[in-house]
Design brief:
3-stranded parallel beta sheet, 7 helices, 13 strands
């Protein structure tokens, strides 16, 4: 995480408009202190790194409604899901989207959870949820980005089937070094990393989007960055990690 902080800091220093986003399953992983704190330490870390929005993935939903509401309250960024529903109330567990002012554009960020019902939470069809969220978000935004933890196959169906999306940031299965681009809508799907036991968060994807005056995506670049030893640790974040792990 300290290396990720260095890269994010470098991007901010460049002066380019920046959004720091995550497509989900980012709270607990398979190690402490995240497991022991039910994701509280992860929220603290993402606050420290200045995240803008994070989708809720199936592993996040497995924490249950009480823990998730606490994590949402602790976050200085937006937790998002347009299709995760609290069974006890029938209401969405989190906001379906958030709008951020970036480089003179109003950017709507929609969150989609991957399918995987729990005892407390029902996950609705991702494609229908995206359609509904886009219809609402386009009224108050210039550009729409989707954070989807539904996996590569579903994300490609979303890109093919829903117009008005500038880009999809993918999570879940199907990570790829190259973006997948819909032949129907020209919407790119970026998917930087796929977590596995003992391995998560070691790849940072950098997408640069070019939008014209008609709010249309005209060009983009995409680069997955492996955060190896050649990337120095951020001193402040490294110190924070030491206080959390004792090493």
């Amino acid at each position: 995480m300290a290396r990720r902080a260095t890269k994010i800091t470098d991007e901010r220093k460049s002066g380019s408009p920046l959004l720091v986003l995550d497509a989900g399953n980012s709270l607990t992983g398979d190690r402490d202190p995240a497991l022991q704190s039910a994701g509280a330490s992860s929220v603290e870390a993402m606050n420290l790194l200045g995240y803008d929005a994070v989708a809720l993935g199936p592993k996040d939903l497995a924490l249950g409604t009480a823990a998730l509401r606490q994590r949402i309250a602790e976050a200085s960024f937006s937790f998002l899901s347009a299709n995760a529903v609290d069974r006890s109330t029938g209401e969405l567990l989190a906001k379906p989207y958030a709008v951020r002012d970036v480089g003179g554009y109003r950017v709507a960020i929609i969150g989609i959870s991957g399918l995987g019902d729990t005892e407390q939470i029902s996950v609705r069809d991702p494609l229908a949820a995206v359609r509904a969220a886009v219809a609402d978000a386009e009224v108050e935004s210039d550009v729409i980005v989707v954070l989807s933890n539904a996996g590569a196959e579903v994300n490609q169906r979303i890109a093919d089937g829903v117009t008005g999306i500038a880009a999809i940031i993918g999570g879940g299965t199907g990570a790829s070094a190259e973006p997948w681009v819909s032949s129907r809508t020209n919407t790119p799907v970026f998917h930087a990393d796929e977590g596995s036991p003992g391995h998560a968060g070691r790849v940072l994807g950098v997408a640069r989007l070019v939008v014209d005056r008609n709010d249309t995506l005209t060009d983009y670049t995409w680069k997955p960055l492996k955060l190896g030893p050649e990337v120095p640790d951020d001193a402040a974040v490294a110190m924070w990690l030491k206080t959390k792990t004792g090493s």
